[in-house]
Amino acid sequence: xxxxTSQPPEPSPVPPSESPSGASPLSLSxxxxxxxxxxxxxxxxxxxxxxxxxxxxxxxxAAVVALVxxxxxxxxxxxxxxxxxxxxxxYLLLLVGPALLVLRGRRPVAAVAxxxxxxxxxxxxxxxxxxxxxxxxxxxxxAIGRGHRRAAWAGVGGVYLVHVLATFxxxxxxxxxxxxxxxxxxxxxxxxxxxLVLAIAELLRFRRERIAAHRAYRQQLDQRRANEERLKMxxxxxxxxxxxxxxxxxxxxxxxxxLDRRPEEARTALVTIKSTSKEALGEVRQVLAxxxxxxxxxxxxxxxxxxxxxxxxxxxxxxxxxxxxxDGERRPLSATVDLTAFRIVQEALTNVIRHSVAREAxxxxxxxxxxxxxxxxxxxxxxxxxxxxxxxxxxxxxRERAAAFGGTITAGPLPGGGFRVRAELxxxxxxxx
Length: 433
Fold this sequence. Notes:
Blueprint: H1 25-34, H2 48-55, H3 57-77, H4 88-100, H5 108-124, H6 133-145, H7 149-169, H8 184-258, H9 263-288, H10 308-317, E1 321-327, H11 335-355, E2 360-366, E3 372-379, H12 394-403, E4 408-413, E5 419-426, H13 429-432
């Protein structure tokens, strides 16, 4: 048995994207059933009135805030006789701020800037204190929640600076309302209130970012699992088809050579082709049945070392005598280890049929180590001269299977000729029990 002349590149865990016209039906089925689409799941259908309500939510919020600011400020003006009474310009400012909230979803920075200017103008004009801050606070919290923290904090600092200048710094002749008496408790309360609102906004932003990061991680994890499942199925199909098609190819050549001279032997070869193809189709259906959902029952027994007799019979039909030797007492294996050991033996025998002139091979199962199962497949050689066909990914697939749960594969020529494949597969006690 002769190894590939060049080591093929390691397959990427994420298969290359293909155009729909050039993709195989299997790849399209896998991508549609196992992995999410690049754009995410489609939006669920909603009734027109629900869509209209969602689209009108910013306008509705702006209307409610405008009503609160106008009514609340008018009520507050009755108890603040020292402030400038509300006039047309004051009511205009009370309406412009909520109107700018319509932009907070698409243009949060513009909404913060606009409401900050409106609020600062209201304070500088000396109008009564009241819920005029509502639209400004909502705009700042929305900007923080969407990641525009600098704009929000700049707006808060700018409005508070205008408040300090208009209340305590500007000369009396420049102010429309009488100068307020400085009460440090009130200023500390105002600062504490602003910081509390901003801290709550920061906590909400942090929570939103954590949720988004967790969602992205789950999507990546699901995508990784889908890719691993896709690679697992690809390896299964490769091993099944490579082994079966190699036997079919050899038997087809025998049938063609003996069809005229010895039709009975040709008939035997055709019967072998039929049975081999039937077994291969059954295994392929069993692999593809997983695409229909976890509830699908397998159509036949799962491949494992208990089916080594079938492999030896198939090899014998094409003229390869396989001897199976076991050292130690056989013990139960987990389904993964059992399938991996079977596929390694199958692929190794397929390589003997393809790449070696030898008509005999030995399969050795070493059970003496309670923690490791050693599988060896050897043939005396020599190797076939020239291209014997195949994709050259058989050894890579065996290594990937073994490495999936900590096993190792070594393969190479023997000193006296021939070729050996040796696999060490961990079998923990928890699995063997």
